[in-house]
Amino acid sequence: MDEILRIQPIVRDFAETTLAAIPNVLARLTYIASLRDLSSGKYEHSGLSVVYPADAVQEALKFCHQEIFSRFLEMPLSVQEQDLSECLEGMPGPIAATVVHWRQLEAYRILPPEDAPDYLRELFFSNLRVLLEILDSQRSTTRSGG
Hints:
By secondary structure, the protein is mostly helical. It has one domain. It is 71% helix and 0% strand. The protein is built from seven helices and no strands.
């Protein structure tokens, strides 16, 4: 409980100043995953690190990452599809190319928190594989005029 109280101001600050500007859940998840160094697992956020102790920033960002990941998985699959579509549309380049890239490289595999249980990771991966396939087929149908 003390830990939650200790990181609460950081979580609030991060949510209000950074996450609030990101339009959807998967884009938030993508952003917070990008703050994590893949070699060390440590999160890096220069703005928060200037204001708060480093260990508290780590805990707060880890907490936010887990919360956003859970929030995405709790959404109905149809809402996840819409969220994924909006997230990919917000990325540079044509969405069709982004969908193909995400499908081929499975770029989404770095998005779950490090300590997410395997069954939730697999659910997330499975959902995204299916949703990307749906988006790809919708784009193919649109391109072919059918």
